[in-house]
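Name: Lysophospholipase L1-like esterase
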Amino acid sequence: MATPLYQHHLLTDFISLLAALALLSLPARYTGAAQAAHWVSSWTASPQAVWGKDFPFPTHIPDGLNQQTLRQVARISLGGKRLRIVLSNAYGQTPLTLGKASVALAGDRGAVDMGSLHLLTFGGKTTAAIPPGAPLVSDPVDLAVPALASLAVSVYLPGPTPTTTFHWDARQTSWIAVGDQSQAENISINQPVTARTLLSAVLVDAPRTGGTVAVIGDSVTDGNGATMDANARWPDFLARRLAPRGVAVINAGISGARLLSDGMGANALARFDRDAIHQAGVRSVIVLLGINDISWPGTLYDPLGPLPSADGLIAGYRQLITRAHTGGIRIIGATLPPFEGALPGTPLDNYYSADKDALRRRVNTWIRESHAFDAVIDFDALLRDPARPARLKPAFDSGDHLHPGNAGNRAMADAIDLELLAPPRR
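Structure predicted for Lysophospholipase L1-like esterase:
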């Protein structure tokens, strides 16, 4: 009579045999191709909740869409032999219905290369519903794309669709058109917009990749101050340097973002997993956050908010470090650039004060000297004016004394030692 242990082994062997036979019976697209795929995030736009009419800045998108097509352009970092598109209903309260969606290589002013256009499918279907709070990942698209390619993603929304999830500071023009124009070469433009909605990521199948670098930050990373439609954010320039090494760069910046408190998006401690360490293929994270925690209190943004302590900010950084290391991810800290005289002639001209700058300098000293991060990028030393260290160097200043312009963004990317982020080429 067989012992219970022997019976267990027989049952296990039988289940394994059934599983192997099932795999043999599957089409090739579900077996060898799936096993060989290596999906990495090549582009992202971090989702934000749409704010109310009482917030100082307009949203730059309509309150809702209905029987309209939204076409958005995204320049990826790393190329691949296939791709997937990720859409987000992160802050939706109801399911979001897609009528049809497509992806193609982008042309000029919203046009597409028709020879590259592919309809997106989701579980084999061209229509889909995104549950509240969820993302939606497309099926693989057999479209080979080179590094630094610009893609146009078009989504047709057949019914009333409230815009609850967006990315405010896109630095890229999108287009809203009447009717289903998801497969049109040149859409008839109804309304150009400068914010994103729905589109949150592009994944590429790049099996020999060196992984992805996620950059989590605020408006300096999101690109405020960079030229529109020029891919001139500092992570864009970094992507150009890393693409030949097979390394992707994703931008998890949100203008107005803070480390400890919600701002124009969820605080970094709340969104770190979603926007950085859980993105496909991430091996390294760069953190450039904290200036809005320091500067918002007392301004129109946060009139009654208290100034955070250096210890509180340091505890927040330590949490990000611990969570990255728990996942085996390298984390690099960046010092906070100077901001004296920030936002002159605006309702936020009290953004800077001597007390706030003293706190910034204390935090920077800890970033440099604590050795808590795996490495440090000293953007403060790079960007400050030697003659007036509390201010941005004029050549790097976009003009508002807070955000670097294109030249400053390029200098930031060029100053980074690629060996911190990329394996050497073989």
